[in-house]
């Protein structure tokens, strides 16, 4: 569980710091690869408009900040 929380924390910081201009599908694939490499299972990543009700934790920002990637367990 500690690894999971650490992974999500790192992804959220890294995702927002360097991915603002990235295409959402590319960033989503990168985040999924990192989660898979850490052994996280049973999750979904969803691309939604910024500010929309997503029901999960925002782990990345893409397309110049207009959309976010939401992690759901």
UniProtKB/TrEMBL annotation:
The keyword Signal applies. Keywords: Signal. Residues 1-19 form the signal peptide. It holds the Pfam family DUF1161. It comes from the Bacteria. This is DUF1161 domain-containing protein. The lineage of its organism: Bacteria, Pseudomonadati, Pseudomonadota, Gammaproteobacteria, Pseudomonadales.
